[in-house]
Amino acid sequence: MTTHAGVTERGRDIAARVERFVRDVIVPYEKDKRRDSHGPTDAMVQEMRGLAREAGLLTPHILPDGGHLSHRDTAIILRASGLSPLGPLAVNTAAPDEGNMFLLGRVASAEQKARFLAPMIAGTARSAFFMTEPSDENGAGSDPSMMLTTAKPDGNHWVVNGRKTFITGAQGAKVGIIMAKSDEGATMFLVDLPMEGIRIERVLDTIDSSMPGGHSVIALENVRIPADQMLGNAGEGFRYAQVRLAPARLTHCMRWLGAATRCQEIASDYAVRRRAFGKALIDHEGVGFMLAENMIDLQQSALIIDWCADALDRGEAGTVESSMAKVAVSEALFRVTDRCVQVMGGTGVSRDTIVEQIFREVRAFRIYDGPTEVHKWSLARKIKRDRTPRDPH
Amino acid sequence: MTTHAGVTERGRDIAARVERFVRDVIVPYEKDKRRDSHGPTDAMVQEMRGLAREAGLLTPHILPDGGHLSHRDTAIILRASGLSPLGPLAVNTAAPDEGNMFLLGRVASAEQKARFLAPMIAGTARSAFFMTEPSDENGAGSDPSMMLTTAKPDGNHWVVNGRKTFITGAQGAKVGIIMAKSDEGATMFLVDLPMEGIRIERVLDTIDSSMPGGHSVIALENVRIPADQMLGNAGEGFRYAQVRLAPARLTHCMRWLGAATRCQEIASDYAVRRRAFGKALIDHEGVGFMLAENMIDLQQSALIIDWCADALDRGEAGTVESSMAKVAVSEALFRVTDRCVQVMGGTGVSRDTIVEQIFREVRAFRIYDGPTEVHKWSLARKIKRDRTPRDPH
Amino acid sequence: MTTHAGVTERGRDIAARVERFVRDVIVPYEKDKRRDSHGPTDAMVQEMRGLAREAGLLTPHILPDGGHLSHRDTAIILRASGLSPLGPLAVNTAAPDEGNMFLLGRVASAEQKARFLAPMIAGTARSAFFMTEPSDENGAGSDPSMMLTTAKPDGNHWVVNGRKTFITGAQGAKVGIIMAKSDEGATMFLVDLPMEGIRIERVLDTIDSSMPGGHSVIALENVRIPADQMLGNAGEGFRYAQVRLAPARLTHCMRWLGAATRCQEIASDYAVRRRAFGKALIDHEGVGFMLAENMIDLQQSALIIDWCADALDRGEAGTVESSMAKVAVSEALFRVTDRCVQVMGGTGVSRDTIVEQIFREVRAFRIYDGPTEVHKWSLARKIKRDRTPRDPH
Amino acid sequence: MTTHAGVTERGRDIAARVERFVRDVIVPYEKDKRRDSHGPTDAMVQEMRGLAREAGLLTPHILPDGGHLSHRDTAIILRASGLSPLGPLAVNTAAPDEGNMFLLGRVASAEQKARFLAPMIAGTARSAFFMTEPSDENGAGSDPSMMLTTAKPDGNHWVVNGRKTFITGAQGAKVGIIMAKSDEGATMFLVDLPMEGIRIERVLDTIDSSMPGGHSVIALENVRIPADQMLGNAGEGFRYAQVRLAPARLTHCMRWLGAATRCQEIASDYAVRRRAFGKALIDHEGVGFMLAENMIDLQQSALIIDWCADALDRGEAGTVESSMAKVAVSEALFRVTDRCVQVMGGTGVSRDTIVEQIFREVRAFRIYDGPTEVHKWSLARKIKRDRTPRDPH
User: Fold this and answer.
1) Beta bridge partners of A167
2) What are the Acyl-CoA dehydrogenase/oxidase N-terminal domain coordinates in residue numbering (chains A, B, C, D) (predicted)?
3) Which value does ipTM take for this structure?
């Protein structure tokens, strides 16, 4: 029911085709057994991508010339891809690859694009973004300025040492983007994976299960990286991270909005079909009201995504907008999926439908990419700045 | 921070001027003592309207030719007027007049417009809409099909009998629109007020205090109305009510969004200025998070209003959209004003600022124009219709 | 439905009689017009107290010898008195007198009791507790250690200077307890009111309206107090404030639990009697569920009050328990009264029933006696103390 | 911090020993790999039970003579056992065995007790309760009166046919209690498992993973049961189900309260130890407030469990009380575990601690044993009965 002012005809067409493809071709894969606790196997992903490629829908938000569709167009396409948790993997709009492709598209050199970005766009290479560090007792975790990983020059190479955690998709990735601190400041490097010195200490077991490779703790031990694999310039790592930050945060919202929309469809159909105490479930206000609240939450999620996408399309940083969207959407979708589980009772907590998985995914989403509380904290600081009286001169 | 795609330059200009006028000229009237428990006296209203007239801002959303600005333009203008609870009264965008003017602009004859609508647009006549009936034990209240008020033809007149309740502004109004049931069905009539046979049984004492005349219980006892004062055609009353319904519901949201925005400004300033336990209130996350949640709630309210206004501007009925907007906005603004009260502590529950009044107004708003639960009920029915499998042929 | 283990037969009997008295005799006074915006006039209070005295129910929780019933017994008696907002005033269990009587009973000398406490117990004198100071920009407000009011010895007198705010019932009170800072530390004094040097700057207009005299801002200007009117010892003011603190906080919970219980009765009766869309309101799950949630919230409020009262009866300070009870009960009762308003629709926001007033009172209760956030803050500190590893030796 | 009036010295002692046993001996088993998606293997359960037996803590709430401790004593013992999801399995207080033992203790004949109950108490036999039926499209599910499973006499046997769903622990159970409809009405039977004609169609994959055997869909196909295996009398099945109902519902609350308490300990320790943005996590109000809210929710859960246990100990049916407790506790514990996850960020959604599992278990608990909405519905009906005016004669 969302309005699509700002959306192009082309975007709308791609989104419609992605939606049809996900519903008809990918949803049946949800019953496919080829998966571990982190997600489908790479073989299954490649099989689905083959179908997407045939359908002309692989990496649908990136143009043949490497340009990206607008954020507004991307919003409806990624939302359509998210109707199944497998959809983004199938059409290559999944995290962290989508954000990594966006970053490389903006910052990488032509040579780097050919070597690292091209196979990602072609859907043959997965990637990982090595930024978050273990918070341990001194709290580096969510505070990027406290980064401990170092990059030291050594002839025509850089030598990187440190530890990273919660690195999504590292297991099985072919491309890595590593953030480290050189004398010039935060600096990013591109590497082929696997690579000597990059050791997966362990893959975390987590509540979510839609990201192949899971989330790893990584040791970086004397990783020797040729100088021409530096991404952009030394000392600009934080600036590049910002380039990736708001759009990647927002694409999470887009995909999970699709998934929660699917839950609402499943729960609504269930409530229309099943009867209890003499009438259809949906005719019980206790059930109908939950679905009505979902309808509103879903619509409002779509609206704030579009609003933030508009800001990005106008060239704004979107930091505040994407914080607002992240909090609003992740919390709303958690309410939505929680209500869907509840509406469906015993079926809701079983894997007979995809609702149970999406509920778990969205629980994690409230933490991934900055927990709700960190965003509220930064919004409060924004309010303080805006309302603090200025010096009169 | 709202985007204004769909808003015209003219609308934006009027809104900016209304905002300036309300902030500079009307806010000081908030301390004016000329008011009873229902709102400012008519004298005070006329004084404020005189100033609005001088500023060229009286009835700013209606063009000289009687046409209305778009709903999107109206949204930002009415929101600006709502920055003070006195603002809509001052610039003549208040309920129920605003909705009544909209209705007459659509349905009244030229003669009726000259006689009844013109003084309303000129800000010299208040009006009342006689529709809701006492629910008593048989439940007519929110169920319009159970209307008991009758209109019987008698020569060149209609004779109306019945009872109405919660008639906002009846006390002191000069124009009345009465809904009654004739043999042809629901039918509307225009009357001058006061009028023989229309008796105010009592004015309710209510939690809100921004509507001059308050909300009355009314007896209609052999009210004789000349036939040419029928509004439109006999039997079309419900259709006309629908014309008024969604837009009037939405303008409530617009005005109260302005009021809640004002609360957020006051509470933010308070939190920036006051200190507790060694730091500014806003630096306490317990306070800062509440203001951050408000920031999101206010933005989402603006977005869903705009979205519904877009639907109305496209000529859609907007029934579903305005139900969604009414629930989302009224509940969000209640949270917002409640948090503002809480942030300000003892000051929040005192009348030292306007926050206390706006909190009470918004509490009533969750019930006026259809309580949240009635809207959820109708949204659940919409979901049921949409998801019930169609007969295949 | 609360269990009353720990409650005595006598307590139960008094509570039953208070309940009968409030329901039969005091509830009709709710329609009495003798009141201003802060509460009933003193004449009306005296009239009700005369009836309570005749019924043997004046100050029912204090024994003829000045002793107090247990906190558990007090809980059910004060709850019964609170079934009407007028009840505590009628039977003399209202704030701040109840807490002040408790304090004087514990700390005052025999002479002081005869002079100051006796008329309070007899219901002929109201009292005020001058502790809170204006928070202004330096934040003294909720932080008692930052008290600025001073007491300086001058011969056989003390001279007190300072400012106090939110002093409930000061207007019209005959007894005052003043907290000030002497060289020895925080010190309390008893005074007759009105008194030279104690000037009511203004009485705040607030959302609540059940406390005669309202809440005042007070200037203390060279108030000369004879030395024998010091309460207890110099420097022990904070200790005495602690004596009063937890019990007074809890009696607020008791009274408002009674009031919210009354709301639930009124809303339930309304929902049983009224019909909408073809059935009784209560048969709509949207309504019935709200009343069911209230039933649970009310029961849990009773339980946590009893639990805290038990701790106090065992002689514990009850600081943590009363903070937990204050947060849980005030927030729960706000939800309860808010739902009652909502269930009753237009009637809920009108003064046709007492629900509207109680809703406003409970809104203020979430702030009075320490806002929710201050209690959560102190509970978090308690958790930190409890879970911080101890030094091993 | 709960008070234990009503709790005996013996109960307190057992609870303390169970707590020590679970913390010291069972918690380390949480890292044991011997488990499938439904819970630990039977071998692992037997190993833990061996340790409990040695410690004299197996089936600690049932006396050697078969009598049960009071519900109040049971409350603190089962809560202690629940501190690990493995605890109830280890000490034999887990569902559904605990409720089944309670039922057999009340209703079974001496012979039946020796044959079916004794091995359950000895911890060598698991059991299953075959009551819930598939709701399908005609809605039998949560509405026991619509039971479709039939029992027909055939000589000295009964022949049972039907389908059951969500039968916890059926896979691997040795004792079954089957509910069916005979001409006399609902009737229960005891059977050894596995048994001819009782076929596990499939074991559901569900979000929870603490119940060995999981939850099964079962076909009952001409199950021939000797007449002396009828439990109690024909036609009394619903009455027996009521005997089991409220206590079993409440023991769920007890166990999960223990588990959520454990989460709070883990999250508090995490928040005390970890630092972010320059201070301990718990010193951030955004974190500290969540833990404070948990503290209150946990206390209130304990109180309402004790209150309901009191009612059961007084011999009341406890239907209303246990519905209230089920709603209050399951919803509160979900909030508690959700906040713990959030406080712990990435660690919260990982299996590095038990918090992630308990969060999932409690999600299911909001549905198992009657979803929240069904209980609210029955509470609303109770309110209606209580407040409907009686016929005067």
Assistant:
1) A216
2) 8-123
3) 0.95
